[in-house]
Amino acid sequence: MDFSLSDDQLTIRDAVRDVCARFPGEYWRELEKTKEYPTEFVGVLTDLGWLSILIPVEYGGGGLGITEAAIVLEEIHRSGGNASACHAQMYTMGALLRHGSEAQKRRILPEIAAGRLRLQAFGVTEPDAGSDSTKISTTAVRHGDQYVINGQKVFISRVEQSDLMLLLARTTPLDRIEHTTDGLSLFLVDLNEAGSSIEARRIPMMFNLHTYQVFLTDLVVPAENVVGEEGRGFRHVLDGWNAERTLIASEAIGDARFFVDHASAYACDRTVFGRPIGANQGVQFPLAQAYAATEAASLVRYRAAAHFDAGEPCGDDANLAKLLASQAASQAGQAALQTFGGNGLSVEYDVERKYRETKLFEIAPVNNNLVLAYVGQRVLGLPRSY
What we know:
Helices cover 48% and strands 15% of the residues. By secondary structure, it is an alpha+beta fold. The strands form three sheets. A four-stranded mixed sheet has the order 1-4-5-8. It has a four-stranded antiparallel sheet with strand order 2-3-7-6, with no helix packed on it. A two-stranded antiparallel sheet has the order 9-10. It has three domains: 7-113, Orthogonal Bundle (Butyryl-Coa Dehydrogenase, subunit A, domain 1); 119-231, Butyryl-CoA Dehydrogenase, subunit A, domain 2, CATH 2.40.110; 235-379, Up-down Bundle (Butyryl-CoA Dehydrogenase, subunit A, domain 3), CATH 1.20.140.10.
């Protein structure tokens, strides 16, 4: 069993690191001030093909796997950046690649790979259906060769920075379904053609995240834009979710490495009472614990990615990776703050910014308590708790 990255994977990591070096902390701090989207950064990643590496070669993409996508996202975060502006273009591919029709894939994927279309929005969560996605109430009613969609979504990121959105809506009422996961369908929505049928209101957040409330009023979507089978959209989305959790884990691991790298360097340089503060076990041990937690999370993440790329069940590992990685990032962030002391709260060191950003991973895309419930019930066979 080989745990090392291949030469090609190391080349990917180094290439992404070189790109990120062009966008240092000052770039991200300025965006924080203006609350603007990192258009230039995302544009460079798009032009270099990093956001289309999961698209098969026959559609113009890189033809690589979740493992390579994980390396890209981890390195962005380890370099001090934030991939939340563009990561959805990777994990939304799971549902489209596995369940989209050949016509859909040939129409859309080459355009995404070329950077002419952006698929950055994933419309699932609703005000009254967050973690319990099977209770979605947004409706899609068929009229001939089209559907009319009405409802509301919340915490839908990058709506205004995307051309397309994958949208989950109810095509069969709750009281007419046999299983809770039935009756939901997945739609590919052209946001450029939606006009006034979609209203997006940005939600102010604790860091520079472009996420929105979305109101859908008589949105017309052609029947040819249904992804997969009508009524089985929830199952199709699960493929995207396992990819999402594995990739989000990679971002958290990148954050953890950022904290450990920077705090270790600072602890070697910062001298108090005549010696580096890193000589003190009170500084060393929290950083060492954070490093150990990060390495453990990384191994589970790569196992999840390997299963996904092999077409094998990966839900258990994807959830575990997200849990362990988010905990490791939070632990490493706290250790870094303590190591930097007052400087950790200073904007110029980027520690406080990264700490605010990484706290999201304990809550999204799924709350860690629900991951623990999943492990208890689905892995350990314990009685259902909710």
